[in-house]
Known about the structure:
four-stranded mixed beta sheet
Amino acid sequence: MTLLNWPKELDADALFARVFRPERARLAEAMAVTEGAESPREALERAVARGLCPEDWLDTSSLRGRAFGGKVHSPRRIPQLIETVTALASDAEGVLAAEELAREFLRRAGRMTTVASPEAPLFWRERGGQKLRRRGIFPEGRSVFPPALMLFHDVQFDYRDVDKLLVARDPPPPSPQPTGLRGLLATVRKAFQPQSPYRRPTPHIDEWNGLANRASREHGVGCAQAIDHHRRAWFCAVLGGEKRTLRDLFPNSTLLVAYRREVLDASLSTLPNVFEPLARLWWTGYALRVVNFERIELQLPRLEEGDVARP
């Protein structure tokens, strides 16, 4: 399945089931190992000794790695709560995968605009998974991205332009045209048919809007935000077939000043799909919280009553 086939082939129900629900396949073992620990560091040392976490998670000297508070140049390397250590130890592979996807996002975004270095520490913020699913990561109307990246959304485009881009990437098979008298009547009818002044969404846009509305209505804002990141990744894939530049497509956008000069004059087909790693990140059960010019924050769902290891 390719991104261009979204949203029709996107398994939305499977995605909703993973939003803020990490796999945590070793939860029972992690709870047993950390039980009785007197400090988060002791709990982490036990988890490392059991092989639940990589040994370098105990390294507090390097600026690269994960952090649980503090400042960019003096991050707090050890969580403040033993429960947080348990959550991390129960799904170390998922945590590492989420961090690598976040760094890949920074690498791709850094080619286009100014963001934090991929080598910067990744800050984890903890919150209840149910609350995150219901309310989302950030207040509505506030962006988690640097302003420049907001350009990559189909709402910046005339719907008819999106249609043209999709047809250019994946031309539909020719439909049989009526011939004879029926064909003549169809041509005359089309010539005299009044054109509607309203722009109609493409079927793809209708599908995305329907998915976002269903996600918000049935599952909460968090799932709608997951759909938004997938939608942006899809639109970047649509633009990936363009030989035109950002200046050509968005000549009047004030956001262009935030892009690197070499990017503005490059064909869109040569630019990376900056949102693809973020779409994939949702499937780990974690998500991006915010990114700015010096740091990136990830959202860690807190262990909650009733959590069990997922098969």
